[in-house]
Write a structure and sequence with these properties.
Blueprint (H helix, E strand, L loop, with lengths): L1 E9 L16 H12 L8 E2 L8 E11 L5 H11 L4 E9 L9 E11 L13 E2 L6 H9 L3 E4 L14 E12 L2 E8 L6 H13 L8 H7 L14 E8 L1
Parallel strand pairs: 3-10, 5-6
Antiparallel strand pairs: 1-3, 1-4, 2-3, 5-9, 5-10, 7-8, 8-9
Helix pairs in contact: 3-4
Length: 246
């Protein structure tokens, strides 16, 4: 039995999220169906670095699985891509130690959120960027983002539904990347809570529109109450970009 680590990309538009759900199309379901076919009907469990919600995309999601099949790494990549649907792509496959775990060994993640700053709809971006048609004060947003850097209790910036008790996380980097009318917010940290990036983006948009002042961010962090942060930005602008390992 050999353990394989894969980096995969997917267009989240047609999925109800990454994780298996009854009677719903998910990324994990598609992966496990292909692997079961390759293993003559025997189930193969796929473990991911984390879940993504319905509509969320991935550029560098990491998964692992175990297989007794004597297939070289490069042949795995070809075989999986030939059988998977068009909205999932296997970017690399490598043999790893049997102790490797895609989720528990991850030491950090990079997410990106793409905003289309335009008053006009772009049908080609409708599933891949959140269109924001109002004026934004980018300097105020940059100033506000600095208060998120470092280690904080992010209770105010995660879904109230989350079952995780420890809500302390460290954000190392928040970058603003402007290309034409596309604004990409880049977040790098040691981990992110459920809906955390989308709430951070919604809060920064509230700052950019003048509804929240940059200096209010430390107060919102201190309150540890979801009601004081901004709205949750839509899923389709979010990308799991990269997962970091030691």
């Amino acid at each position: 039995m050999q353990r394989y680590k894969c980096i995969i990309s997917y267009d989240g538009s047609g999925f109800s999220g990454y994780q298996v759900q009854p009677n719903k199309r998910t990324v994990q379901t598609e992966l496990e169906a292909v692997l079961a076919k390759m293993h003559k009907g025997n189930p193969v469990k796929v473990s991911g670095s984390g879940r993504t919600d319905a509509g969320v995309h991935a550029k560098g999601q990491v998964i692992h699985f175990d297989s007794p099949l004597p297939i070289p790494e490069e042949k795995w990549e070809v075989a999986l891509n030939s059988m998977l649907p068009e909205d999932i792509s296997v970017r690399s496959v490598m043999i790893v130690d049997a102790s490797f775990h895609a989720r528990f060994d991850a030491v950090g993640k990079e997410y990106r959120y793409v905003l289309l700053l335009s008053s006009i709809r772009d049908p080609f971006q409708r599933n891949y960027a959140y269109r924001y048609p109002y004026q934004l004060n980018l300097e105020a947003m940059r100033e506000a983002s600095t208060f998120f850097l470092g280690t904080h209790d992010f209770t105010s910036f995660c879904s109230a539904k989350t079952e995780v008790e420890d809500k302390i996380r460290t954000i190392e980097t928040i970058d603003f990347i402007m290309e034409g009318n596309l604004l990409t917010l880049r977040f790098v940290g040691n981990g992110f809570l459920y809906n955390m990036v989308r709430i951070l983006v919604g809060t920064l948009l509230a700052v950019g529109s003048g509804d929240i002042l940059p200096e209010e961010i430390p107060v919102i962090l201190e309150k540890k109450d979801r009601r004081f942060a901004g709205k949750t930005a839509p899923a389709h602008g979010l990308y799991l970009w990269k997962v970091f390992y030691k």
